[in-house]
Amino acid sequence: MCRFLAYSGEPVFLSDLVCAPTHSLVHQSLHADEGKTETNGDGFGIGWYAERPEPGVYRDISPAWSDENLVNLCGQVRARTFFAHVRASTGTATARANCHPFAYGRHLFMHNGQIGGYHRIKRRLEALIPDAFYDHRRGSTDSEAIFLLALANGLAEDPVGAMARTLKSVRDLMDAANVCEPLRFTALLTDGETLTAYRWACDGRPPSLYYREGPGGIVVVSEPIDGCREGWQIVPKGATLRARHGTATVVDVPERTRAAA
């Protein structure tokens, strides 16, 4: 499983959260505490919003703990909203195109989880993505496929309902293929203004997700970056966190689309 971090609020340097804390994301790339694996060395990525509506993105296959360019870039970039992700592959290739976050227009998306039996439904899942969105597929991950299908299902207008409908379609494919492994989906989406954090799983065991609100903004993480849980709140299982202008609200998944939650 992967580790990630998102921030939205008053502009700060990326290094303040990605590199500097005791249990920073860079540290977690080598020594994660709550992930399925301790090491997340299959690449990294950052995405940030500055003066333009579309985000900037930097991704590479180097482990985050050994990439000087990442540290230097984070020390120079100040942003009001940004994503950072360190990857532990669940079976797809270690390639730049498979590193998170994924970008489409104004949107950034990153994922920590898995589609059980993905290799058995990959072709059918990709067939559900309309050509206009499939033309933007660059990698081979389940995460990117979910993102593009969700965009086609109206993600920009309805982040919770569209994602729930998308994962219901994925679950239907898994059931048809007699896949027994779970669908686990802890993910983050933003358009630069609103942050949406999902913590869903069909078996009730979604990957960890925490958030902390402060006077300057909100931080959402896979695991606390200061090495302790004090001051952090857990996003409940099966819930979604929505944040805008530093204020967070936890909402439930729509009842009609609960197949993945």
Structural class: alpha+beta
Radius of gyration: 17 Å
The pLDDT mean sits at 92
Low-confidence stretches: none
Secondary-structure element string: EHHEEHEEEHHHHEEEEEEE
**Strand arrangement, major sheet:** 3-2-4-1-10-9-11
Q: Main β-sheet, in a few words?
A: 7 strands, antiparallel
Q: Indicate the CATH architecture.
A: 4-Layer Sandwich
Helix % is 10-25%
- What coarse outline follows from CA principal-axis ratios? globular
Distance between the termini: 18 Å
CATH class: Alpha Beta
What name goes with the CATH superfamily? Aminohydrolase, N-terminal nucleophile (Ntn) domain
Number of domain units: 1
CATH topology: Glutamine Phosphoribosylpyrophosphate, subunit 1, domain 1
Please explain how this structure is put together.
The protein has 261 residues and is of the alpha+beta class. The protein has one domain: Aminohydrolase, N-terminal nucleophile (Ntn) domain (Glutamine Phosphoribosylpyrophosphate, subunit 1, domain 1). Helix content is 24%, strand content 31%. It is built from seven helices and 13 strands. It starts with a strand and ends in a 9-residue tail after the last strand. The model has no long low-confidence stretch (mean pLDDT 92).
List keywords for this structure.
Glutamine Phosphoribosylpyrophosphate, subunit 1, domain 1; 24% helix; six-stranded antiparallel β-sheet; alpha+beta
